[in-house]
Write a structure and sequence with these properties.
With 368 residues, the chain is α/β, with parallel strands linked by helices. It folds into 2 domains: 2-175 and 282-366, Rossmann fold (3-Layer(aba) Sandwich); 178-276, Rna Polymerase Sigma Factor, Chain: A (Orthogonal Bundle), CATH 1.10.1740. It has helices spanning 119-133, 146-157, 176-191, 207-221, 224-230, 250-263, 268-280, 290-293, 314-326, 344-347, 350-366; strands at residues 2-3, 6-10, 13-14, 20-21, 24-31, 41-44, 57-58, 71-72, 77-78, 83-87, 102-103, 108-109, 140-144, 164-168, 300-306, 331-336. An 8-stranded mixed beta sheet has the order 2-5-10-6-13-14-15-16, with helices on both faces. A two-stranded parallel ribbon has the order 1-7. Helix 3 (176-191) packs antiparallel against helix 4. The two termini are 32 Å apart.
Length: 368
């Protein structure tokens, strides 16, 4: 399935910070066909470093989408039945307006003059996109990690627009540990001399700082078991230690590769803005409690977590489930056994597929 990226421009958006951003470009892709009643649309929400290319093969770059094992004919999100939409988040660097975009007032990249954004702002832009499609209600909103946070925000902020939600491996607010990991990444970027207070566009980007930030982040995506199975203490291309600070271990080589690869496809300032938006996210804001936040929610839920995920551990998904049940919401919850850690939602798809396929089928049956 060859897919093409699309972009739509909106005049402006008012942000939670009080700032106004104008104009706003939104990059998106779609898979499947929207039915005549516009009742089969599902919005897929990407994780921190994802983008609008969720499935199929990119017409521009020939790359497979980040959730291609879940979206397509006969897959969990069956494109023979459902119309799938995925957009790059506000603040991103893959087609949607972000700090690397040109500020029309100056003719230069926004850089650090870009306003601080929130998960709520991201979802507000997505709602504008769904309105542009003329879709009155989404059959489902879904995503893992930061995508799950956006799905929860949709269900709370636009309860009449969402029939169901599938938050996967996520939380209603970051813990101190989760904020701490993000702050280490931000400090690594800002400590790079090439960051230049964010004004590096057209020059040398802070590649070293961004690579270190990604290396730290990538460690949190994996589990101890998966790292032991994949790397152990195996040496890289040598029989004994080099007694220097070059690569000795396979895991060192892997992390350096991941860091350098990330630099080629992601903007350092987007890293700062998006991680800050994740840290600000707190579904209880303005509601007093998590149960109160779901008071107006009309959606039915399928919450999924993974046993080895220590970045977004299962207790955070269980908090969501308890709050929904306190409001007598229709919610199912499954903790899946997996050794892949937080990355499980991207790679451990067999059981997810069965759960989601059944959940969507019953949602269609129950939908008004």
């Amino acid at each position: 399935m060859i897919v093409e990226a699309n972009t739509v421009r909106f005049d402006s958006i008012s942000l939670d910070s009080g700032a106004t951003l104008a104009p706003v470009d939104v990059a998106y892709e779609t898979y499947g066909r929207l039915n005549a009643s516009k009742s089969n649309a599902i919005l897929v929400l990407h994780a921190f470093s994802g983008d609008a290319h969720a499935a199929g093969i990119s017409h521009e770059k020939g790359k497979t989408g980040w959730w291609d094992n879940m979206i397509g004919p006969g897959k969990a999100f069956d494109t023979n039945k459902y119309f799938m939409i995925c957009s790059n988040v506000l603040g991103g660097c893959r087609g949607t307006t972000g700090p690397g975009s040109v500020n029309p007032a100056t003719g230069r990249a926004y850089a650090m003059s870009f306003p601080v954004i929130t998960i709520g702002d991201m979802v507000r832009v997505q709602r504008m996109l769904i309105d542009w499609f003329g879709i009155p209600r989404l059959l489902s909103v879904t995503g893992g990690s930061m995508g799950g946070m956006q799905a929860l925000e949709w269900a709370v902020s636009y309860p009449d627009r969402v029939v169901s939600a599938i938050p996967i491996a996520c939380t209603t607010r970051h813990s101190a540990q989760q904020i701490a990991f993000n702050e280490v990444g931000r400090q690594a970027i800002m400590a790079d001399p090439d960051w230049n207070n964010g004004d590096y566009y057209g020059g040398k980007p802070p590649a070293r700082g961004l690579a270190v930030a990604r290396m730290v982040g990538h460690i949190t995506f994996m589990s101890d078991d998966s790292m032991r199975e994949k790397f152990g203490r195996r040496l890289r291309g040598k029989e004994t230690f080099g007694f220097d600070f070059d690569v000795d271990f396979e895991v060192e080589s892997y992390l350096r590769y991941r860091g350098s690869e990330f630099v080629t496809r992601f903007d350092a300032n987007s890293y700062l803005y998006i991680t800050k938006a994740m840290d600000y996210f707190d579904l209880t804001n303005g509601h007093g409690s998590l149960a109160a936040a779901f008071e107006r929610t009309e959606a039915r839920f399928l919450a999924i977590s993974f046993s080895s995920d220590w970045l977004y551990p299962s207790y955070q998904s269980q908090e969501i489930v308890r709050a929904l049940r306190a409001r007598n919401c229709d919610v199912a919850y499954v903790e899946l056994e997996s050794n892949y850690g937080h990355d499980a939602f991207l790679v451990d798809v067999a059981e997810q597929t069965d759960l989601i396929r059944g959940f969507l089928a019953s949602t269609v049956e129950k939908a008004p």
